[in-house]
Design brief:
Length: 273
């Protein structure tokens, strides 16, 4: 067999062999990210893609493992719909999701990302008083559908569902509270305070009636997401949390940049701390 023919045969065999094992695309190229507004973790804009601590951190993690990620690819949806989409759409993920016992088997988790604080808010001059958690049963409560505060209240106060007015997001909660159409809202403290300004609300006109136990938040992935990608992202996050020569970690420096300056409203009757 001539040299040219031998090379041709070998190349043909190699091509045939490689065809049996096609190149695997980057795992992250198949992930569809979803978000709703939850400052400072996910901040929505009218004229650009979402920003925020969780958005930037996910970008750093994805790029560090050689995967594609662009904030402009994040699909913004009302919270309840975003959670539903990630539950049913393979290889999808939520930028921020509280880890609750009832959610453990419904998602795959990368984190923890942070701890958030939840509080019950009322208008300062409304006359609403909550000296103990059970007092919430006297009032109408604005809640965002399919969120962790709903699970908290339902578990703590069976029957409280009849007091709840279900809403699409934090802006709707704030408008309902401002207009007196609900007596109380329950939501993350930092996000609520930051978004009050967007709704033309002065923080000093509102007060926190009650604080709940803090919640740990993660990046939440559809449960069919490739385990290899989950493991690589978890390793990337763990590495970002390691203290370097500066005496802090890249994670802590990024977190401080986004969360520094959050000052909770004064607390009245904060028995839940």
């Amino acid at each position: 067999m001539g040299t040219f023919r031998l090379k041709f045969v070998l190349l043909s065999l190699c091509a045939a062999f490689l065809a049996l094992f096609p190149a695997r695309p980057a795992l992250g190229d198949h992930v569809r990210f979803y978000a709703d507004g939850l400052p400072p973790y996910a901040v929505l804009h009218d004229d650009g893609p979402p920003t925020g601590f969780a958005v930037e951190l996910m970008g750093l993690m994805m790029h560090s493992i050689g995967e594609h990620f662009a904030p402009s690819d994040i699909k913004v949806l009302p919270w309840a719909r975003a959670v539903h989409e990630v539950e049913i759409v393979p290889s999808s993920a939520l930028i921020v999701l509280a880890q609750l016992p009832e959610r453990l088997g419904r998602f795959k988790w990368v984190g923890p990302l942070d701890v958030i604080h939840i509080g019950a808010y009322a208008r300062r001059r409304s006359g609403v008083k909550v000296e103990r958690l059970e007092d919430l049963k006297q009032y109408s409560i604005g809640m965002v559908r399919n969120t962790s505060p709903i699970h908290i209240l339902v578990n703590a106060l069976p029957g409280i569902e009849k007091n709840m007015v279900m809403l699409s997001g934090i802006p709707a909660q704030l408008r309902m509270l401002r207009e007196g159409r609900v007596d109380v809202i329950v939501q993350a403290l930092g996000a609520t305070e930051r978004m009050m300004g967007d709704e033309g609300m002065a923080a000093e006109d509102y007060r926190i009636l009650y604080r709940f136990e803090p919640l740990t938040v993660y990046f939440g992935f559809n449960r069919n997401t490739d385990d290899e990608l989950i493991d690589r992202l978890q390793s990337a996050l763990d590495n970002f949390k390691k203290v370097d020569a500066s005496g802090s970690s890249p994670y802590s420096r990024l977190r401080e940049m986004y969360l520094n300056g959050i000052s909770p409203l004064d607390v009245e009757g904060a028995e839940g701390e």
